[in-house]
## 1
Amino acid sequence: MHREYALLYPPVIEFGSGCRFRAGAILQQLAGGSGPRTFAVCSRSVRATGALDELAARSRISLCGVYDSVPHDPPLESVDALIEQLCLTSADAVLAVGGGSVIDAAKTAAVLAPVADRVRPFFEGQRPISRPGLPLVAIPTTAGTGAEVTINAVLSDHLKGTKRSIRSPHMVPAAALVDPDLTVSMPPELTAHSGLDALTQAVESYISLQANAVSRPLAAAAVERLLGHLPQACREGRDLDARTLVAEGSLLGAMAFSQSGLGAVH
């Protein structure tokens, strides 16, 4: 087993039903006690169902803008557009509510908006991400990618037909709020795909050559929860107990692989 390791997580990780409504208080703390101008990045469904409005109202978040046009595996052009919108609003913080693609795009835009208007030089490794960006609070609506606790974002270059990660310790969100209530509306197919993604990541983390005394128990706990409860979450989406255990498995697996790395299968 690998004996030397360093751990890098969001300073705040909260899990549980309703924890998303802590976002406003956390954003205020990040702004030193005052309500920051917050720019929201979300999926179209989160906006259309009123989930974003409810979150903002109940958490007393002052939104200065909303971007809900993030495609799957975000292309560089989409992130460039997001950076432009973010800069136009003079936002102090970013709130990401959605699946892995939404959170990845938000993480990239939040860290680059203060220093650049184009992501390609960073994506191609021509420029390093050398400083923190805007503080970001990540709230996942799927149980799969673990993007809310990782240092990277998966982006796509449609011009060259490639997909890769852009990564930096500065991309770790300031807070991750994992609320299983938000996963209840996921359809069975998306639940299965997301859950199997999380399961694969947990297994690969456990057997990784970089696995350590922290990552391996987290990975094992993730596998136990996902294997034991993902089938029920797919069969009965309204089963909050199953949804909660699957969401927790996804979070624990991400906390594991973000430290140990993944393998060739993934």
## 2
Amino acid sequence: MDDIAFISRPDQVAPGWLTTVLRAAGATDEGAVVDVQATPVGTGQVGDSVRFALTWDDADAGPATVVGKFPTEDETSRATATAVRTYEVETRFYQQLRSRVDIAAPIPYYAQIDMATHDFAIVMNDLAPAEQGDQIAGCTPDEAAIAVEEAAKLHAPLWGDSTLAGLDWMNRNSPEGLRGLVDMVWPGFLERYDGRLDAEVVDAGSVLVERLEAYLSWRPEQLTAVHGDFRLDNMLFDPSPGGVPMTTVDWQTVSHGPGVQDVAYFLGTGLEPDLRAEVERDLVKEYLSTLRAGGVKDQSFEACWDQYRRSAFAGFIMAMISSMIVGQTDRGDEMFMAMANRSGRMALDLDTLSML
């Protein structure tokens, strides 16, 4: 793609440019895009997504629509995304890892970034009519079962892969850096959401902050590629006949870490606590079964369950940090409170603090 002009804004997506991109990606043979109409889609906090409706010189020459992802126009969120390398991480996932994993994820037609400015653009297949999950409403056990199977399809192909340790963009977070970030946001988090956080969750969170080094320093022997923000708002569900049941999007937080952390993050934030407590052991067993089908033979249920319990605060930590470093919205506040309270309750139910 070195010969394709670099773009980073929706208004730069022109018919000729898209024709070149889609031909290079094999999405069309000789067809040409003659018109493009753009419509914003999604509710992303740090990136703007746009659906492009395409008119072709031959109606059947290529996809009717594609989706593009670009830097957010919100200055606070963009500064945060640049600081934590969000745009770089997502672009590198599509460039370097997408073809190596089995999870259902968008097909990239174009993925480029300018590291001097962190301007970027990703153009991918449109997943409509699949519908975005709702982090606030939560999900059903059946949807959760699909999600844990997909998590295993991400983790199994790269389980214990030593090459991941050499990818700087996947190994960008240090316990020391996260310690400093938590210390910076924790007081403001408590103040902003006073009265909206469950009292027991606040108490557990305070202990977690005190013992944060123990939580962050734990690493199992075998690591893999972890999504890092594996939750309902980043999933598209399509129950239609022949549709892909669930596709995971927003690969902005991929890292090298414990695979089961994605499972704990998802179940802890996506299921109401009572329902999660009823089904989580069976869902962890389903996750392990899919891992084994994918070639992972060195993981027992006891080890997997232990790692799941240790990871229970994952959603709480993400809600605490993200809520304070991206642009504030009413929906965002409601979403972060659902994540923090559910995940905090999970950690209490599983007695995670006793493991730190």
